[in-house]
Amino acid sequence: MTSRQAKSVLVVDDDATQRRLIADFLATRGYDCFQAATAEEALSELRKRPIHIVIMDVRMPGMSGLEALREIRESFPVLPVLLITAYADVRDAVSAIKDGALDYLAKPIDLNELAVAVEDAAGAPGLPAKAPSLPDIPEGVVAKSPSFLSILAEAAVVAPSRASVIISGESGTGKEVVADLIHLWSERRKKSIVKVNCAAIPDNLLESELFGHEKGAFTGAVQDRSGRFEAANGGTLFLDEIAEMSPSLQAKLLRVVQDGTFQKLGGSGTLRTDVRLIAATNRDIEKAVADGRFREDLFYRLNVIQLHVSPLRERRADILPLARHFAGSFTGGKVRFSGTASAALEMYDWPGNIRQLRNAVERACLLSRGEIVLPEHLPAKICPSDIPGRTVPPHSDGTLMEDVERTAILSALAETGGNRTQAAKRLGISRRNLIYKLQKYKQEGYI
Q1: Which of these, 112, 169, 174, lies nearest to 143 by C-alpha position?
Q2: CATH number of this structure's domain 146-310, picked from the four choices 3.40.50.300, 3.60.10.10, 3.30.450.20, 2.40.30.170
């Protein structure tokens, strides 16, 4: 019985970082990847071995991707060629389809879109893909949902490179956590990750914060001060809410991104730094570019890879594990959530995402005194009165303690799948007492 042959991919790009990212990502999907830095080198590779698909940048020194495409078509008329293009090249890429290009992908590359395009063109990898093994995840990072695990898998592919990254997503979704992991999994982990919230610092101070200043540069500058680019030298600089940065400061940031040099505020000397930039934003940064509020050249310099962190309402498998993690950190012990409380947490849409969940759990732990969290301990908007288990039935005698006790007992029974012995142990009461309570609830119409 013959083994299946892995499908082969040739990645052609003069940008070594981009080239390795694409090749490493497709390798984790089970493809056999080869690389070429120029179109000329790519043509040579095609003569050496069978290739199932070519992924090629449009703009390269020497022979361009479009010129190489025409030559490939002469010798390999049916070989799929997928072009990669910057926004400004889209018109050329569209016209190149007439010359035989299969399709094009615009930068920044969406890795999932890339995987789909490659599989559509070349077929499945052939060999079973090795499940992308994530590096060790630090304690306290909760990842159970497929959506967030997928983001971490992409972060693991990106981390070893020098590529700049933009992490997008709503406030409170965990963008900073992803940035921390990229740094931790990179070769720069022995150095610091330095963080700057661009929205929290007035623009006239942000320049000094980033680049430092010389004594006398402005009123109050009584001594020289180093900036965050110097502090992050050899490590990672995380710029949170980068879309809030003013256009004038964006121009100065562009220079650092391009050649690694900058000047202190009020200084004349040129300093050099080796920094890996990770930026984050909760805004639609591409719309900001289209509206002229964010520099297009800076966007493409930063946005080699874009990771989008989904909101918590799209990652419901993460909600209860996160809640339990927060509860444990607040109380130092294992806090249980009743079935009704758990259902309420999972049903709520969490517009404030993880930050809102953390606050709600902290409140619940205080009210429950670190024991079982019941619906009554959650904010009313998260667990409204129409959720079963929270309301006091019309025929109740109105005693709050009895209502809380009943909710706890019924929740424990549900959580143990109806096992009365286990439910009694959880509640700290005798099995006989539990059976008595259940008979009482049955007579009263609760079960």
Answers
A1: 174
A2: 3.40.50.300
Q: Please list the alpha-helical segments (H only) found in 238-318.
A: 247-259, 285-290, 296-302
Name residue 337's beta-bridge partners: 373
- 200/208 Cα distance (integer angstroms): 14
Query: Does residue 161 sit in helix, strand or coil?
Result: coil
Closest alpha carbon to 306 in 288, 280, 283? 280
Q: How many CB atoms lie within 10 A of CB 188?
A: 21
Could you give the CA distance from residue 228 to residue 275 in angstroms, rounded to a whole number? 10
Check: CB of residue 185 under 8 Å from CB of residue 24: no
- Taking the whole predicted model, whether its pTM rises above 0.70 is answered as no
Give the residue from 440, 383, 367, 386 showing the smallest Cα distance to 409: 440
Look at domain 8-122 and name its CATH class: alpha beta
Going 79 to 80 to 85 to 90, the CA torsion angle's sign is positive
Q: Which residues are 34's β-sheet partners?
A: 10
d(Cα 304, Cα 165) in Å, to the nearest integer? Answer: 6
> Taking a C-beta distance cutoff of 8 angstroms, is the pair 236, 158 a contact?
no
pLDDT at position 281 is 96
Distance of alpha carbon 433 from alpha carbon 356, whole angstroms? 38
pLDDT of residue 339: 81
pLDDT for the residue numbered 91: 52
Number of helices followed by number of strands (H, E) in the chain: 18, 14
Q: What is the dihedral of CA 175, 177, 179, 183, to 10 degrees?
A: 180
Please state whether the peptide bond connecting residue 108 to the residue before it is cis, i.e. omega within 30 degrees of 0.
yes
Residues 392-411: pLDDT tens digits?
433 344 445 566 677 778 87
Q: What is the pLDDT of residues 60-96, one digit of tens each?
A: 889 988 888 888 888 888 788 888 877 545 555 555 5
- 314-444 adopts what CATH topology? Helicase, Ruva Protein; domain 3 (1.10.8)
SS3 label, residue 300: helix
- DSSP state, residue 223: S
The two structure tokens encoding residue 206? 């942000």
